[in-house]
């Protein structure tokens, strides 16, 4: 474990993205995760990354489960009297957190025009669909992999893989990160935001792992009326042989109306192979009636009442 920690700390010092831990006996498979290989990045570990306190100044309407809600937010880096856009964030929150945030800001959103949405908000080429005056907004704590150059935002840079950590209820709207603080992070380590080493204490209790219940896989199968008959109820026993009637007649019980070439012909052969006896006439003494469609079930149940020995319908 300590060897992994040391390697990750070396990667942080070298401004690398992270490390790859793998089983030397594993085989690489394209487009496959796991398989004896695991990627470890500083942003996967709490406390190793610098964080951003950003003010929400714009929004974008969501799609799918997030439709009718603002799901992406435009966040700025601060300048003395105005706010410059920095990034667009649309992950890191739950649907409930997004819903609660929407209720809090709902009445303050305004439709954005082609120009800068407000005198206090300066945008690059990326314009929001709606905007909010800074004094009516909230500060979010965000985390990202690194700061990269971008002409889409007014700060001429943006965050790579940004995500919302939490809403800063303890801060006022004007207490967000300043442009000077942003530039300090940007130029300190070529935009890399991993600034601390990982230290593990041997007596440190492990965090309780969440147990994830795997969702049942959705299987693709054959439509019911194309499936072969389930003959599991017709089994061969040592002390008893079964006699079955296969309902291949257009008219129930009429041998002259037999339909040739149905799937029941094959089932009858299988039944004989396993030791069963097939009869061509529906009569007293049979143990099973095999049908191709459930449409005959009601008629057979009515007929079964007339028999002393009741047959099973399969």
UniProtKB/TrEMBL annotation:
It is an enzyme of class 6 (ligase). Pfam families: DNA_ligase_A_C, DNA_ligase_A_M. It comes from the Eukaryota. Its main location: nucleus. Residues 274-314 form the BRCT domain. It catalyses: ATP + (deoxyribonucleotide)n-3'-hydroxyl + 5'-phospho-(deoxyribonucleotide)m = (deoxyribonucleotide)n+m + AMP + diphosphate. GO terms for biological process: double-strand break repair via nonhomologous end joining; immunoglobulin V(D)J recombination; nucleotide-excision repair, DNA gap filling. It is found in: Nucleus. SUPFAM superfamilies: Nucleic acid-binding proteins. The keyword Membrane does not apply. Its EC number is 6.5.1.1. One of its GO terms (molecular function) is DNA binding. Its cofactor is Mg(2+). One of its GO terms (cellular component) is DNA-dependent protein kinase-DNA ligase 4 complex. Signal peptide: none annotated. Residues 1-75 form the ATP-dependent DNA ligase family profile domain. Keywords: ATP-binding, DNA damage, DNA recombination, DNA repair, Ligase, Magnesium, Metal-binding, Nucleotide-binding, Nucleus, Repeat. PANTHER family: DNA LIGASE 4. Belongs to the ATP-dependent DNA ligase family. This is DNA ligase 4. It comes from Cyprinus carpio (Common carp).
